[in-house]
Write a structure and sequence with these properties.
Layout lengths: L24 E2 L4 E2 L11 E3 H4 L8 E3 L8 H5 L1 H8 L4 E3 L11 H20 L4 E2 L22 E5 L7 H18 L3 E5 L4 H9 L3 E5 L2 H9 L2
Parallel strand pairs: 3-4, 4-5, 5-6, 7-8, 8-9
Antiparallel strand pairs: 1-2
Length: 221
């Protein structure tokens, strides 16, 4: 891991280099490092709902459509004061669709960790989201995450379709093998056939139902 970034005077910062001006980098693609945190979420709220909430005793997540939180990348400073009022945040879950060019998937992995680093540098408590695509993404999606720390994954939308479930399960296995996490925070279901193996390994699984699932429970759907 190294520190390589500098500030260029007289240039418009179109790629938001200020987010990582003091970052350490990891891997050949130089992904910003998220420092380990000991805190764990008590409750979760989506970014879109957090903007309208004054209940700050919870953590903000980004397990929603990219269009709902692309703005936090475009104008990070606008949302910083609001996000700082919550207990903590999970780094953004920018999509890694398998039919996206790999360079775009790597860019999305970078963006989430760049924001996470910047939030940490502004005094916020941050946990890293891990999003995998196919096997090609394993070369960069774990960069910037310290092995043995707490990680977060989103399973919502990945369990009902057989192909998506297969890729999620395979990606989680690679994640555990690479990162050896002490705790995995799961947004969405954590079915036994996928997660029991890791519970038996001594990994703590901290599961939160998705907002969609909770809304269905309330309506009886």
């Amino acid at each position: 891991m190294s520190k390589i970034n500098g500030i260029r005077t007289g240039c418009r910062d179109v790629f938001h280099s200020y987010l990582v001006h003091d970052a350490r980098y990891d891997g050949t693609l130089e992904i910003p490092v998220i420092e380990p945190e000991s805190a764990l979420p008590n409750r979760l709220i989506s970014f879109s709902k957090a903007l309208k909430s004054d209940d700050y005793d919870q953590w903000v997540h980004f397990y929603e459509d990219d269009g709902g939180f692309e703005r936090v990348w475009n104008k990070p400073g606008v949302y910083l004061p609001k996000l700082k009022q919550f207990n903590g945040v999970i780094t953004p879950d920018f999509s890694l669709y398998r039919d996206m060019p790999l360079v775009m998937q790597a860019w999305n992995s970078y963006r989430g960790k760049a924001l996470g680093h910047w939030w940490q540098s502004n005094g916020m408590t941050v946990l890293p989201n891990v999003r995998t695509g196919d096997e090609r993404t394993y070369d960069f999606c774990y960069n910037g995450i310290i092995p043995g720390s707490t990680i977060c994954v989103g399973s919502h939308g990945c369990m009902k379709i057989r192909e998506e479930r297969k890729y999620f399960s395979k990606g989680l296995k690679a994640t555990v093998s690479r990162l050896h996490p002490a705790c995995i925070v799961v947004y969405g279901s954590a079915p036994d056939d996928i997660f029991s193996e890791y519970i038996n390994m001594g990994i703590r699984i901290l599961q939160f139902d998705s907002e969609y699932s909770l809304s269905r429970d309330k309506t009886g759907a």
